[in-house]
Amino acid sequence: MKAKMFRALLPLAIVFTMVSCSSDETSETAQDKRVVTTYNYNDTELKLVTLINNHRQSIGLNPLEVVNHISYKSEEHNIYMIDNKVVNHDYFQQRSDNLIQVLGAERVGENIAYNYQMPESAFSAWMNSPAHKANIEGDYTHFGISVTTDTQTGRKYYTNMFMKKQ
């Protein structure tokens, strides 16, 4: 009798478990697709926006429109690098996928830098690197920037993401 009751209730338990897990996944997906509309830019970030757009215009390219959501995703990466004491492009594909899904990006690029105290120094380093320069001068329409200081070391982490809108 107990075995028959167990077999009868087991499918219900499985269905209940699957349904309860699904609601958690749905809320995470909805949060991942949320557009961040506010971002407080610091002076270093604002200077880099100006340096990048001035350079683009000086060679006949369109200035890039700053998008707060992209800056927010850039800041998330800086925080990741600070927390993990690394300087890399880890999880770039996830950041890129987010910009594609949330903002309709056609193409995404990324520059990072570390330990430059002045925005002009970070910009100069990017311009002296063929791959970073290619992003700055690339066929993009929008971008975001974040410069985050590690409170323990005082070192700055830079992430600059570029996007071409479809």
Distance between the termini: 63 Å
* Percent strand: 15-25%
The average pLDDT is 87
Low-pLDDT residue spans: 8-29
Q: Can you count the helices?
A: 6
Query: How many strand units?
Result: 4
Largest sheet features? 4 strands, mixed
Given helix and strand content, the structural type is: alpha+beta
Helix content: 55-70%
| Bulk shape | globular
Global Rg = 22 Å
What is the H-and-E element order?
HHEHHEHHEE
Order of strands, main sheet, comes to 1-3-4-2
Q: How would you sum up this structure, described in words?
A:
- This protein has 166 residues and is of the alpha+beta class.
- Helices cover 55% and strands 18% of the residues.
- It is built from 6 helices and 4 strands, in the order ααβααβααββ.
- The chain has a 4-stranded mixed beta sheet, sandwiched between helices.
- Strand 3 and strand 4 form a beta hairpin.
- It is globular, with a radius of gyration of 22 Å.
Brief write-up:
The chain contains 6 helices and 4 strands. With 166 residues, the protein is an alpha+beta fold.
